[in-house]
Design brief:
2 copies of one chain form a homodimer. By secondary structure, the first copy, chain A, is α/β, with parallel strands linked by helices. The first copy, chain A, has 12 helices and 7 strands.
């Protein structure tokens, strides 16, 4: 998905958000914002938001000297997610919903809200688009599934989804992760948690979305041959929307007007759609 | 008031807002955002938000060829304000409150909300800081008052304030306006509405706030000698805070975290404070 003018201010604000998270002084924050502004000027409207986010986060790393600037937030999100009582998840559709709700865990938030309560509240809502039935039918015949991970923290719920699927079906699950720390996205390091139920695949991708141009050959081959690909979160949607030739199940929460307009839905809606 | 890192994204988003208001195509919007980003890089943390806003709006004018890009919104805001039944305003303190509430009229808003209802609701709230008593005492002895206008639309309510003051006191009111169209700020053109009750003063200032460095000699002289100066809106606060040597009554609604932090108040609070 190409950026729209709205994405520009949004991407700049992400730099500010990281500056605050790292408690940087005003001068360093200004340096980061200036460099981000330069990056935004250098990119044109044919790039995707994740492609630009990659450059911005690399600049933040270079300026701060932090290879993984939000590592502490990632650890906190994982801890919080692991505390959740998930006994209410009784089926694969339940697990799909918890997995997408995990996407509301914001890396910048201090988790001062009651996560369990937030999840229960969101769990009572329906998907705006729900291709769950098609997914269940495809599962019957599937041998290999790809799940493209998104944020750290929600990967705890992805694990539950994989376990629920494997309880009923004999499938190999490949769990795709980013090739390098980018925002709070799950990498090989965080994904170790899933190593007993899934084949962790380092995609080599440095953008916060599975960008086909960046994907290494190994992940591309699995991506192409898998019976089912399930891409989580808005970053993967932005990278794959209208790019991939194969069918993909997109599982995400609409978080901005640009994506909302692209798919004709509202902000905050939960989406589970087999290709767009 | 110097900018903080938060102001950078906010100023960029104002460019986007104007782009949308003018219904510009994506390429022109990108051009405006790129130029705005350059301007933000060129300014450092010692500048005020209105100083940067001036450069951004001049760039928008240059790119679009519109000398007053939001002129239609200004006309609409004035029309909407003039429709309001203000019979509930019975005193100078009432008029002060309506005058600051006028500051919620957003130039970008389509006025789809019920303005009368919004005003009545806000009118029931109290000022977070209210130096109204000191103001009334000073009015007793005042001969010349300066009111520094802010947004077009709210100037209709400023007129009512001036009329209420003049009903009780024999004072000359100088109404300060910007020297050129900048955002939706009131200029000589819009201020004609007040010419029968106030002396309209073109300050020559091109920033969306009465910047002392830009003010022409005529307005500076009146500013220095007036018995009372009342500066409206956040732009004037940002330009004058810790800059002016004389006492000023600041009358505004807190609209952002940066100003909220500077004065130790919350967003949305109404402020009427004799100097800071």
């Amino acid at each position: 998905m190409h950026i729209k003018p709205d994405c520009i201010g949004c991407l700049l604000n992400q730099s500010l958000k990281v500056s605050k998270l790292l408690e940087l002084d005003d001068d360093t924050s200004k340096k980061i914002l200036d460099r981000s502004a330069e990056i935004l000027i250098d990119h044109d409207l044919s790039d995707t938001p994740p492609q630009i986010a990659k450059d911005i986060y690399q600049a933040i790393s270079a300026i701060t000297g932090e290879e993984d600037p939000v590592s502490l937030s990632k650890e906190r999100a994982t801890r919080e997610a692991m505390k959740i009582d998930t006994s209410f998840v009784q089926s694969i559709p339940d697990a799909l919903k918890l997995s997408v709700i995990g996407n509301v865990i914001d890396f910048g938030a201090q988790n001062q809200f009651d996560l369990q309560e937030t999840i229960q509240k969101q769990f009572g809502l329906s998907f705006a688009i729900d291709d769950g039935e098609a997914f269940m039918r495809e599962l019957e015949k599937a041998r290999e599934i790809v799940i493209i991970g998104d944020n750290t923290g929600e990967h705890v719920f992805d694990k539950l989804l994989i376990e629920m699927i494997q309880k009923e079906y004999d499938v190999l699950v490949h769990y795709f992760v980013r090739g390098t720390p980018i925002i709070n996205d799950v990498t090989v390091k965080e994904a170790q948690l899933l190593s007993d139920c899934a084949h962790i695949v380092d995609t080599g991708v440095e953008t916060p979305g599975y960008d086909l141009e960046e994907a290494n050959a190994a992940s591309r081959e699995i991506f192409d041959r898998a019976d089912i690909v399930l891409a989580k979160g808005m970053g993967n949607f932005e990278s794959l929307y209208q790019q991939a030739e194969r069918d993909i199940y997109f599982l995400f929460i609409v978080k901005c007007t640009v994506v909302a307009q692209a798919i004709g839905q509202e902000i905050k809606e939960m989406i589970f759609k087999r290709s767009f």
